[in-house]
């Protein structure tokens, strides 16, 4: 060796990382809220808690990733939606408490920073933050050769929201007879992709080219729907007693998490539209009904419980916000609950 080693020789390009930060700055500016005091670029971001709008504020936090949906997106070079998925998985979670998302941070890790890949992902993160009304306030990009294979990356997200103590939705006000309303999913969202990829492997050339007129992979990679604006609007109009984000575990494992002891949910099969992607997966993988239920959302992305007398108002509120929804069941007495009972 005639010259000393550099960090770039070891696989980390600081200049490329700086170029990505320059790309992020205008994205963050699009999501800026008045409470943001300092954002992207510093060691920590400052955010002023909006105490003028809250009497007894509680902070609500959530963190998540995209799972092996990211593997499918990487394999097919379609990363434009995974940033939205990342935001959706976090903001939909904290929404179940009735929280307003305030700000979001992302963590992007890769072996060697590919600016085109990174920009596609972070453009999606910014789009998701705009949909949720959250400020993209910071994040971290880690270039780690030796930790990841070349071309691979991983994502994590973190969100903080706020809700007044007396407005928290935690299921304690749920009662027998309350209606269960499903907010429809727009596809698989971000769960069950290890099984999806297994089905694709088994199907091989027999997999359909399209589903409902869209390329199969595009159908499988539809970004997760973000329910923040429609649900937050509903909370201003209707008494909501319980909410659940339907992720891994499906309705059977997620809805009971939102219910108090002694209550179960009687769910009517066929009360919401069945999407082609779920029919194809079940048929192609010969997946039993119970396994579909506990692996996928099966067309239900979020659940809201309201008193029976307010079902019409709730459905009208969702229609006004262009959020497809259906009444799918009722809360019932069950001393062994909470659980989901399909009827």
What do you see in this structure?
By secondary structure, this protein is an alpha+beta fold. 33% of the residues lie in helices and 24% in strands. It is built from eleven helices and 14 strands. The chain has a six-stranded mixed beta sheet. A four-stranded mixed beta sheet has the order 3-6-4-5. Strand 8 (210-211) and strand 9 (214-215) form a beta hairpin. It is globular.
List the helices and strands and how they pair.
Blueprint: H1 14-30, E1 36-38, E2 46-47, E3 57-64, H2 69-75, H3 82-95, E4 100-110, H4 115-132, E5 135-143, E6 153-164, E7 179-184, H5 193-203, E8 210-211, E9 214-215, H6 216-220, H7 228-235, E10 242-245, H8 250-254, E11 263-267, H9 276-285, H10 289-295, E12 300-306, H11 311-320, E13 325-333, E14 340-342
Parallel strand pairs: 4-5, 11-14
Antiparallel strand pairs: 1-2, 3-6, 4-6, 7-12, 7-13, 8-9, 10-12, 11-13
Helix pairs in contact: 1-4, 3-4
Our estimate of the beta-strand percent is: 15-25%
Q: What Rg, in angstroms, do the CA atoms define?
A: 21 Å
Form type: globular
Lateral strand order in the biggest sheet: 10-12-7-13-11-14
Q: Percentage of helical residues?
A: 25-40%
Largest sheet: 6 strands, mixed
Low-confidence segments, given as residue ranges, are none
Count of β-strands: 14
Tell me the distance between the termini.
Answer: 74 Å
Number of helices: 11
The mean pLDDT is 94
Please trace the helix and strand order, writing H or E for each element. HEEEHHEHEEEHEEHHEHEHHEHEE
* Coarse structural class: alpha+beta
